Input
Amino acid sequence: DSVMTTSPIRLAVVGAGNQCSNALMPAFAFLPQFELVAVCDLDSARAAQNASRFGAKAYYTDVTALLAKEAPEACLVV
Output
């Protein structure tokens, strides 16, 4: 039996309100199949805080810019 190794799925989160910050994003630490690459929220301070807190290297206030620059494989829209 061979074991297939794959790279984590590049994930972006759009919308970083209370539900996302307190319930969804903390779970990413237990999901190694995902790599959080960016967080987007209209509130730039909240986007920056969640990116830092959950390990994303980038944050945005404009989803179009996030998609263009980060090219995530998946987006969680909250």
